[in-house]
Amino acid sequence: MNNRLGAQSGNTAPRNPRMPIEIIQAGLRKRHAAEFRFRLYGLVAITLGLLSLGTLFFTIFSQAYTAFEQTQIKLDLFVDAQLLDPDGRQDPEILLSADYGAIVKAGIGKLFPEVESRRDQRALKALVSQGATYKLREMVMQNPGVIGKTLTLWVPADDDVDMLMKGHTDRKEPEATRRLKDNQLAWLDRLQRDGRLEKRFNMDFFTQGDSREPEIAGIWGGVVGSLYTLALTLVFSFPLGVAAAVYLEEFAPQNRWTDLIEVNINNLAAVPSIVFGLLGLAVFINFFGLPRSVPLVGSMVLTLMVLPTIIIASRSALKSVPPSIREGALGIGASPLQAVTMHVLPLAMPGMLTGAIISMAHALGETAPLLMIGMVAFIVDIPKGTLDPAAVLPVQIFLWADSPERAFVERTSAAIVVLLGFLVTMNALAVILRKRFERRW
Amino acid sequence: MDTNTEDQVGASRTATISRDHRETVGNVRVDDPRIRCNGINVYYGTNHAVHNVNLDIGKNEIIALIGPSGCGKTTFLRCLNRMNDTIPGCRVEGEILMDGQNINDKEVDVVPLRARVGIVFQKPNPFPKSVFENVAFGPRIHGLARDKTELEEIVVSSLKKAGLWEEVKDRLEEPGTGLSGGQQQRLCIARAIAVQPEVILMDEPCSALDPIATAKIEQLMAELRENYSICIVTHNMQQAARVAVRTAFFHLGDLIEVGETTQIFTKPRHELTEDYVTGRFG
Question: What is the C-alpha to C-alpha distance for residues A357 and A153, in angstroms, rounded to an integer?
Answer without folding.
Answer: 44
